[in-house]
Design brief:
The chain is of the alpha/beta class and about 300 residues long. It has helices at about 45-55, 70-80, 125-130, 145-155, 170-175, 185-190, 195-205, 245-260, 265-275, 290-300; strands at about 5-10, 10-20, 35-40, 60, 65, 90, 95-100, 110-115, 135-140, 160-165, 180-185, 210-215, 220-225, 230. A hairpin with a 5-residue loop joins strand 12 and strand 13. The protein is globular, with a radius of gyration of 18 Å. The mean pLDDT is about 95.
Length: about 300
């Protein structure tokens, strides 16, 4: 089967804890009662793929999952969403987990754990699957696998998108192989040392010719295409949980690439999808449908 999108990177099981306020050490907020808690599936690439599948794209996950109860939970969730797991790597290391603290505004603190042994061996990546896909999506969690997958994709003319939310020793090498970089808000200034996103993006432009996109939370997204800076505002919603918003944005952005849309339309669509994800609890649990995104866009226009 030919896939619209292949994804290499993280999946995890999230323990989501809703709090009245975030705790603070050494004071009256050192102990905070949990108001509500739930276990749900998430992870950067896995949630982006879940978004793609919900929007109607054919997706395959090329990640590493532990041979444990959490791993079986993730497999079941992805399979139920129609995502191919034929090339998932089963690891003896435990499945990645995260504890997510939510306050009354929907803001979050993420405490995550991923065993260093939980890796997809680069030499086991299915090169034929990547080469036949319409888009490859990678993150900065399993960097050696992401770099190798991106090399295969670029060699076959497959567009490569990414989720880069922090700077690692492999970030610059990975970035050179990504044709459509999507950064978290803090990354461009960390990469360049420039103050301000526009200056940082223009500094990256000197070494990267592709579209450069940055998610900026409730403010939406900005992008640099050629020398033109484009800002696409976010959609005002009542925030329940912002955990998977960036991952859902990337799924919406990939959908626009597959459909051949203009950059402006891609950003509006991805912003709408991300906003809708914030109205529900959980990363994958918050993934919207195509009808929901289209409805929000129609109400905004």
């Amino acid at each position: 089967m030919t896939f619209d999108v292949a994804g290499v990177g993280a999946s995890c099981v999230d323990q989501v804890c809703r709090l009245p306020v975030f705790p603070e050490a050494g004071g009256p907020l050192a102990k905070v009662r949990v108001q509500e808690q739930m276990r749900t599936c998430g992870g950067q690439v896995a949630t982006a793929l879940a978004t793609c599948a919900s929007l109607g794209l054919r997706a395959t996950y090329l990640g590493a999952i532990g041979d444990d109860e959490d791993g079986r939970r993730i497999r079941g969730e992805l399979a139920a969403r129609g995502i191919s797991l034929e090339h998932v790597e089963t690891s003896a290391a435990p499945t990645a987990t995260a504890t997510i603290l939510l306050d009354s505004t929907g803001d979050r603190i993420v405490l995550w754990h991923r065993d260093p042994a939980l890796r997809y061996p680069p030499d086991r990546l299915p090169a034929a699957v990547i080469a036949a896909s319409r888009v490859l999506h990678v993150d900065d969690v399993d960097v050696p696998a992401a770099i190798e997958a991106a090399r295969v994709a670029r060699a076959h003319g497959v567009p490569v998108t990414c989720d880069i939310d922090h700077v690692t020793p492999g970030t610059r090498e990975l970035l050179q192989l990504v044709s459509h970089p999507v950064f978290a808000e803090s990354v461009p200034t960390q990469l360049t040392g420039e103050a301000g996103l526009e200056h940082a993006l223009r500094a990256i432009r000197r070494v990267h010719p592709g579209r450069l996109v940055v998610t900026v939370g409730e403010k939406g997204a900005i992008a640099l295409e050629g020398d033109s800076l484009l800002a696409a505002p976010g959609f005002p919603v009542t925030v329940v949980d912002s955990t998977g918003a960036g991952d859902v944005f990337r799924g919406g952005y990939i959908y626009g690439i597959v459909k051949g849309w203009s950059l402006e339309r891609q950003l509006w669509f991805a912003n709408a999808a991300a906003a809708l994800s914030c109205t529900k609890a959980g990363a994958m649990a918050g993934v919207p449908t195509l009808d929901e995104v289209d409805d929000l866009l129609a109400r905004r226009s």
